[in-house]
Amino acid sequence: MTTALITGSTAGIGAAFARRLAADGHNLVLVARDTKRLREQATELHDRHGIEAEVLTADLATEDGIAAVEERLGRRRDGVDLLVNNAGFGNKGRYLEVSLADELTMLKVHCEAVLRLTSAATEAMRERGRGGVVNVASVAAFVPRGTYGASKAWVVQFTQGAARDLAGTGVRLMALCPGFVRTEFHERAGMGTDNIPNWMWLDADKLVAAALADLARGKSLSVPDPRYKALMGVVKVTPRALLGGVTSRTGRKYGPQ
Ligand SMILES: NC(=O)c1ccc[n+]([C@@H]2O[C@H](COP(=O)([O-])OP(=O)(O)OC[C@H]3O[C@@H](n4cnc5c(N)ncnc54)[C@H](OP(=O)(O)O)[C@@H]3O)[C@@H](O)[C@H]2O)c1
């Protein structure tokens, strides 16, 4: 039996990964900050699918939290075969409206934690000659979108570079770039979503199914769903100044200050 570790497993895209991987018979290590919610999730997945689900409470915005997950990923016994770096969040507001402390926390969770956890996992995977890492980025990686977009662009660049460097070792890495997905993300950030057209919303379970199929095909970049594949085609040929205007109008309407 193989083991998958998912950060941000208790909600949204991470919870969809947990459901799908448990249904496929993987044991799980579930990581987030809310212990009660993690325990409930572990019990439910164990009861429904007969898998072992371990709970690891960790705040990936802290040194101790990152170190605890690194330690789990580095274990040679009960090793982790698949890492899903999914934990993430949005900040409410545009540049200079968001505090520097919140911007730095985002870089810690989206970049430092992803770098350190990927490194801990892939070192152990390379020794075993097999393993996979899915780093959840965003289509925001491809448009001018402040620290959020920049952090996700880093995830894409880092993951594709590492995938190339580890080619032939049996370890696969893939950056996953979702469009808008109905999760707790926007509500947690206090972002209004009523200006996002219905057709732009993706379903988390379908997204995860497409992502895992792309990983199995050996892709290092996954943009699931034909709608977003087409949009990304348009983005590639659109001047960045124009893109900045369009993307700051779509999905960046914030709730009351
Ligand atoms: N939803 C979208 O439209 C969308 C689009 C593109 C990309 N994404 C990306 O997809 C990923 C998942 O987002 P989502 O939409 O599923 O969000 P979500 O529904 O808000 O879930 C976020 C998960 O991350 C955990 N988490 C947040 N901060 C954490 C921290 N400091 N340490 C550990 N765990 C933390 C949360 O649990 P706790 O609060 O208990 O820690 C929760 O399990 C993120 O990286 C996001 O940037 C989302």
UniProtKB/TrEMBL annotation:
GO terms for molecular function: oxidoreductase activity. The keyword Oxidoreductase applies. GO terms for cellular component: membrane. Pfam families: adh_short. Signal peptide: none annotated. The keyword Hydrolase does not apply. Keywords: Oxidoreductase. Gene3D superfamilies: NAD(P)-binding Rossmann-like Domain. Belongs to the short-chain dehydrogenases/reductases (SDR) family. This is Short-chain dehydrogenase. It comes from Streptomyces silvensis.
